[in-house]
Design a protein that fits this description.
375 residues; alpha/beta; Spore Coat Polysaccharide Biosynthesis Protein SpsA, Chain A; 7-stranded mixed β-sheet; two-stranded parallel ribbon; 52% helix; binds guanosine-5'-diphosphate-alpha-D-mannose; binds manganese (II) ion
């Protein structure tokens, strides 16, 4: 029969903690509740996986314990997802294996799931806290939490917690990236609107072994917040094509106007303060405005488009090429209207500039940012 609760325990080099933690988890499972514990070890060089395996095979009666050995891939969130996919319980609990997360809290998290779909063991609600963390780590954690809450509009006080529980249906149909450390954050963003409860606890820094959090993990964190931010925006995408078109055109022209200012200021500065010959100064101004226009259009006007960094230089080249084409067309149009149709210069200019601006928008939308003209 399927257990009621599955407890997922990711481990990496926890030989000094693992046995104690597994014992304590077993003792914390309330009587009358059937549970399975799933240890996901990423082939720890210190033998953590083997120790867990031996411990599990010596158990009899009560809750079961499985040890999964992953080889070839590493990473906290992906290890947890691996465990979740194997879990059979109706409720799932996720926790660290270094005593930072007190197993005694498991019953309260499970209990909370009667009234919510996601229960978070929280450091940042009253009654919660952190013990033995150096000031640097405290500040980093607060800053990262603030960034996530403000940037992603999250209400939970501790979206960075690694100790949480949910009903298994919660993740069905979602595609989870599991990048880096902060799986909970991704779950919160992608299940927006579900009922969340926070249960206070005190995070104790590990007593033995060392944290695996390093610069790479921090970078993964920033990437993951950025991705989730874009995910949120894409979901709120305007439905009416006409409104999307108008809003993009308006942004594109606003960027163009800002480019004029950049062009003017850089040209002026280069020749006055920079000591460039005014023709060179003017070239610099043009180059600067092409680059700033491109950056703004990529990150703002077409923010909902593919953001792969690989293609960026190639896109910049297209953007610059198409913008020059627009300039040449503008000059040609003015010449044609004034020279062959006897139009006044300023009327011709209004027409030619509008046509070039629109042409520029249409061509870049289509060719630089890979969007249909009317989309
Ligand atoms: N399988 C697997 N693979 N487990 C890993 C990996 C990995 O690549 N990296 C870390 N772990 C395990 C560790 O063995 C530990 O049990 C847990 O994941 C957390 O790793 P730590 O390195 O101890 O992290 P921490 O204490 O610095 O960071 C914790 O901070 C958060 C609070 O800010 C995270 O673990 C979060 O869970 C916690 O909420
Ligand atoms: Mn830890």
């Amino acid at each position: 029969m399927a257990p009621q609760v599955s407890i997922i325990v990711p481990t990496y080099n926890e030989s000094q903690n693992i046995l104690g933690v597994l014992r304590s988890i077993r003792e914390s499972i309330p009587s009358g509740v059937s549970a399975e514990t799933i240890v996901v070890d990423d082939d720890s060089p210190d033998g953590t996986g083997r120790m867990a395996e031996e411990y599990a095979s010596g158990l009899s009666g009560g809750s079961t314990m499985d040890v999964v050995h992953r080889t070839g891939s590493r990473g906290l969130s992906s290890a947890i997802m691996h465990g979740i996919r194997r879990a059979r319980g109706e409720m799932i609990v996720v926790m660290d294996s270094d005593f930072s997360h007190p197993p005694q809290l498991i019953p309260r998290l499970v209990e909370a799931l009667r009234q919510c779909e996601l229960a978070i063991a929280s450091r940042y609600v009253s009654g919660g806290g952190v013990r033995n963390w150096p000031a640097r780590r405290r500040i980093l954690s607060r800053a990262a939490t603030l960034l996530a809450r403000r940037g992603l509009g999250i209400r939970a006080a501790d979206p960075m917690s690694g100790f949480f529980a949910f009903r298994r249906g919660l993740l069905s149909g979602l595609s989870i990236d599991a990048l880096g450390y902060k799986l909970l954050l991704e779950i919160i963003v992608k299940t927006k609107g579900v009922r969340v409860l926070e249960v206070p606890y005190v995070f104790e820094d590990r007593r033995s072994g060392s944290s695996k959090l390093d610069g790479g993990v921090a970078l993964d964190y920033l990437r993951s917040v950025w991705r989730l931010y874009r995910y949120g925006r894409a979901r709120r995408r305007e439905r009416r094509a006409s409104v999307r078109f108008a809003s993009k055109a308006a942004r594109f022209f606003t960027v163009g106007a800002s480019g004029l200012a950049v062009n003017y200021l850089v040209s002026l500065l280069a020749s006055s303060a920079g000591g460039f010959w005014y023709v060179h100064g003017s070239m610099l101004g043009i180059a600067a405005s092409v680059v700033s226009n491109f950056v703004l259009n990529k990150s703002w006007t077409f923010e909902d488009r593919d953001f792969g960094a690989r293609r960026t230089l190639w896109q910049l080249a297209r953007f610059a090429g198409l913008s020059s084409l627009g300039a040449v067309l503008q000059i040609g149009a003015v010449y044609w209207l004034v020279g062959h149709h006897g139009m006044s210069y300023h009327e011709a200019l209004v027409l030619a500039v509008s046509a070039a601006a629109f042409g520029n928008f249409a061509l870049n939308k289509r060719l630089t940012f890979g969007e249909r003209l009317w989309d």
